[in-house]
UniProtKB/TrEMBL annotation:
GO MF assignments: antiporter activity; xenobiotic transmembrane transporter activity
This protein's name: Multidrug export protein MepA
Native source species: Aminicella lysinilytica
Stretches of the chain forming a coiled coil according to its record: none
Matches recorded under InterPro entries: MATE_fam (IPR002528), MATE_MepA-like (IPR045070), MATE_MepA_subfamily (IPR051327), MdtK-like (IPR048279)
Topology term for the membrane: Multi-pass membrane protein
Entry keyword annotation includes Phosphoprotein: no
Highest classification ranks of the organism: Bacteria, Bacillati, Bacillota, Clostridia, Peptostreptococcales
Record localization: Cell membrane
Membrane spanning residue stretches: 21-42, 48-73, 94-117, 137-155, 167-187, 193-214, 235-259, 271-292, 321-346, 358-376, 397-416, 422-439
NCBIfam families per the UniProt record, alphabetical: matE (TIGR00797)
Amino acid sequence: MNEKLQEFESGSISKAVFNNALPAMAAMLMVLIYNLADTFFIGQTHDAVQVAAVSLATPIFLIFMAVGSVFGIGGTSVISRAMGEKRTEYARKVCAFCMWGCIIVGVIMSVFFWIFMGQILKLVGATDATWDLAKTYLNIVCIGGPFVLIGNCYSNILRAEGQSRKAMMGQLIGNLINVVLDPIMILGFGWNIAGAAIATVIGNVFGAGYYLVYFWRGKSMLSISPKYVTLKDKVCSGVLAIGIPASLSSLLMSISQIIVNSQMASYGDMALAGIGVAMKVTMITGMICIGLGNGVQPLLGYCVGANLWDRYKKVLKFSMVFALILSVVLTATCYLFCNQIVHAFLSDEKAFEYAVEFSRILLCTSFLFGIFYVLISTLQAMGDATSSLIVNLSRQGLIYIPMLFILQALMGINGLAWAQPVADILSTALAAFLCVRATRKMMRLGKAHS
């Protein structure tokens, strides 16, 4: 057993959580910075049409990331439990399946988008002004499709063998290269939107390349060798059963955002701008808490696989307390500096007022984010695909979308903002209930087999 897995099994609880969670949180913080920087440098062209074109193309790019998460989160759940059960050979099969699954699916997706580019641009609402720009961006970004999948997959899977820092480094390298190249290619070379796309592709190639080199150096307990690829022994179904529900939340987020935008647009462009910036404010807490959840998942999964239920409960308790403290601190910081954060994005007085008001509404429940994402990760760690699916469908879909219409009818424009806090409370309560139920069931099964 290597040193990292030894820490999973018998090391200090706080040290194990921090060593796995902090790098994952740092990686998500870098993703947040990258997302903001990409939009910022395109904005420096002072061409609103280019900004609009990137906004239209972004949901397509997010689909690549979501599919990468299918293999990454699903693979991490299966591998971490297999490691706890000392089934290293099986873990290698899962790891190899995820790699080659990313490559094959990534190529298929890229070809699909190239073939149906016209129909896709119509679907996302491209106009005569944005059509060619959005097409240029997507045509270039699709070149890096398989690399996007690999990067998003292995930034999760490496944590399953305790390599949280290496998992972070791949994301860090890819995002940092992208951020550095953005001003050079967009502004320096004058390539504008094409420069943004090229920087994105190069960043993803380097990020994925880091993970490939890590495996080729042979220092991993896992493997990406084709000889381990198999669809037998529930390798494929085990990964997809957890990965698909986890990625659905990302897809539903895009759908719900489209609905929010369309409803908010009826109150004017400034209201639309305000809600968009307000969501960026709460994203600060959300992204870091997602990193915390991703970081503790393999640790919890190992405890489940090894049948270490006392340790599992201690890890979960420590993670929940840490998550609550983290969320409260981040939420309080965003609330106190709300005006300054909003001002960095908006200068129009009316839009500024909307954004501040909406931000304060959304921040009412962002202190729950840490607990929510730890609960989600706990369900994934136990391999409870059904419960994971229910929670992921609920927060951004089954609860949130109906609340948008109900609360708008009752409260008008503010109702659209209050829909998210209501969904946060109900979905966190649902996740807690399902997590307690699943834990009790797993513990009974574990004791029965011991």
